[in-house]
Structure prediction request, 504 residues.
Amino acid sequence: MLEMRLFLELAGGGSAFCLDVDYALSLRQGPVVLFGASGSGKSLTLQCLAGLVRPEVGRIRLQGDVLFDSSQNIWLPARERRLGYMFQDYALFPHLSVLANVAYARSGGRVRRPEPGLREEALRSLERLGIAHLAERKPGEISGGQRQRVALARALFSRPRLLLLDEPFSALDPLLRDRLRGELAERVREAGIPLLMITHDPLDVEAFASSLVVYAGGRAQVFTEYAAARRGFADTRACLTALLARAGEHQEW
Amino acid sequence: MNEFSLLSPLLLSLRVAALATLFSSLGALLLAWKLSRRRGALPAVLDAFCALPLVLPPTVVGYYLILLLGRRGVLGQWLAEAGISLIFSWQGAVVAATVVVFPLIYKSARAALEQVDSRLENAARTLGAGEWRIFLTISLPLAWRGIFAGIMLAFARGMGEFGATLMLAGNIPGRTQTLALAIYDAFQAGNDARATLLVLVTSGLCMGLLAGAELLVRLRRRRGAARSVRVLRTTDGVRQGGVLRQRRPAC
Prediction:
């Protein structure tokens, strides 16, 4: 179960942005997708959940643990939240090898040369993704699709209780996207870790969403069963356009 | 002019500059790390304070240090009770040089640390790393080139420190007379031959230092480039070709 109640005002560059969301979702029934245009507040929500941005007021509860509660002055630092965060451009450490990147969460002081046991484990996780032969390369020396796999392996290696994906396919060329969508869904299912993804791509929604949160202008509307919301629409795009319009109305109130 | 009189200021200068650079580096790095990406009044004031020795005349820095560390100074009285006197000692020269070179390391370290992509530090945070681990394993390795340049500059500046050293440590041959002071001394005494020799030694040393630093940076860069060429040869991916083209201008 994930409970989010966030209020946050950002003043910058003359235009103020206000994030104001309140919802609760089950993570058990399948992947959660936060959908909305860029600037609608979904990235900010993800950063609040991960502990990288602190909201002014609100409460975040994940699987019974309070990560943030402004009324009790609770703010769990990012490093204690055990959330696997895959960044939009993957944010791989450019000075470390692929293997050292993957092992980072558990390699302690031996970042460049992880201990043999850990090294083996990291190699096995690279093998599962079919990129063990890249272990000694630097992130700058591999392709975009390979980088995404490394980022996924790195996030999973920290044994997270929830995987957060920030626009996971937007940095890839369109031809690759389709193949990697299926692959990523498969790996995450295998790992058995609940998934929360943000995207502005309707194809991602179609491929992943079990429940859907639609963002517009800093507000959010929840559709606990995407499949039910999708019924009656000719295609994904038509459905999402209608849902966005509804979220927009909501915003006008 | 005997051999000893040349060697003594040379060794003292090297010792003073090395120790001053070491102490300054530790302090400046910590402060640059703590103050980088901070906004607000206090960090801004601290930042200006750290840069102050860069713009103040060294004699002013020396005067402040005497007020602080002199026999009747705030810290000086306390140090005197412990049996330590920094005035007119080579340790005093180290203190003077440490303060004077501090802004050079601080400024370049802060700029280099702020250049590091903050998303990488955030990625490390979500992977469970504490702030110290992030600093040591992500920020510092990625910023090393800028920091190293600052450290080299600080060492060279420390070698040439004159004003603050003269005020605090004096100009005692064999004890606190560094190269810069010895040159002034020889010139004042009309010993042009000695002055010229000292000037040449100092120039050669500083030139060598800067060239050595440049070479070191290039060597590391070339090693990185050689690695990507090797990668290119062992694979036939299109992507790697792009990497090589990107890297070529760097070497």
